[in-house]
Specification:
By secondary structure, this protein is mainly alpha-helical. It has one domain. The protein contains 13 helices and no strands. Helix 1 packs across helix 4. Keywords: Membrane, Signal, Transmembrane, Transmembrane helix. This is Integral membrane protein.
């Protein structure tokens, strides 16, 4: 779990810088295109030092995430990633100087309690051999994600943000599952493993879609969609097809810990669009989000 928590810290901190950069790079509403695959927005965002710093932290977080996925079940890693919302809230309160309410700090504590329960209940990663078709299925999921992003830009307001956030979360979920399906590291094995291509395509699509959601949609709604997409689906895949289990007699504490951590993360997600303190601009109060 230490690696999973390290990835949560990196991703959560990166989100603060990336959210500010994405909002500053976003065009006026009248100039936005009809697709959620806004590559121009991503190209504008990466020209800013905040976004590049966020990418560097994301890279470090990904290293921790891979290490975690090699040692603990996917559901434990997914819950830790949901906890990155709590990290985002805490870091943003320092960097952007927006005050967290008592309820929001309570939600952060709930996330930590859920992760503590999950850490005590989690067993080792599953050793069950997944079906070979799962690797190809991941590529199919990526295709659906890209198609969803292409049409999501035509949807209204919060529906657009929720759709883009959910699609981005599924992309990050593809990365989590794909890491577990890469079992041989020789050049030939990597080039012939569909999971490698699913990992690259899924991660790229997720960054693109979430950046689009952050730049023009409701941060809270996009965040909620992303958390659901990157936690629930991969956790089920790990349990059903990869043999992820808990310690003996600890199934219900693990289920409860997972639910508490994710629910607490969703509560913290509303911090993405808080009411600003007196004397602070509404725009500054809204420049929060979670990782692309």
């Amino acid at each position: 779990m230490y690696y999973a928590l390290g990835s949560a810290v990196c991703f959560g901190t990166a989100s603060v810088f990336q959210a500010v950069a994405a909002r500053e790079a976003a065009p006026p509403a009248a100039d936005r295109g009809g697709s959620g695959l806004d590559t121009a927005l991503l190209l504008r965002a990466v020209r800013q030092w905040r976004y590049l710093l966020g990418l560097a932290l994301d890279g470090l977080g990904f290293v921790f995430q891979v290490a975690a996925l090699r040692s603990v079940p996917i559901y434990a890693v997914g819950a830790a990633l949901a906890a990155s919302l709590a990290v985002t809230a805490a870091v943003a309160s320092l960097v952007l100087r927006v005050r967290l309410s008592t309820a929001e700090w309570t939600a952060v504590a709930v996330v930590c309690a859920g992760l503590g329960m999950l850490g005590l209940a989690s067993g080792a990663e599953g050793e069950q051999s997944p079906p070979g078709a799962l690797r190809w299925a991941l590529l199919g999921v990526v295709a659906v994600i890209l198609l969803t992003g292409a049409v999501a830009g035509r949807l209204p307001g919060r529906v657009r943000a929720l759709t883009l956030g959910l699609a981005a979360g599924l992309g990050f979920g593809v990365v989590e599952v794909a890491v577990r399906l890469i079992d041989e590291m020789s050049p030939v094995a990597l080039l012939t493993n569909p999971a490698v291509y699913a990992l690259l395509a899924g991660g790229g699509a997720a960054f693109l879609l979430l950046t689009s959601a952050l730049g023009s949609g409701s941060v809270t709604t996009a965040t909620a969609g992303m958390v659901i997409g990157e936690t629930v689906g991969p956790a089920l895949v790990g349990v059903v097809w990869m043999g992820d289990r808990t310690r003996d007699g600890m199934t219900w504490p693990a289920v409860l810990g997972f639910a508490v951590a994710v629910a607490g993360g969703l509560v913290v997600a509303r911090f993405g669009e808080p009411e600003p303190e007196a004397g602070r601009s509404v725009d500054a109060g809204r420049r929060l989000s979670v990782r692309p």
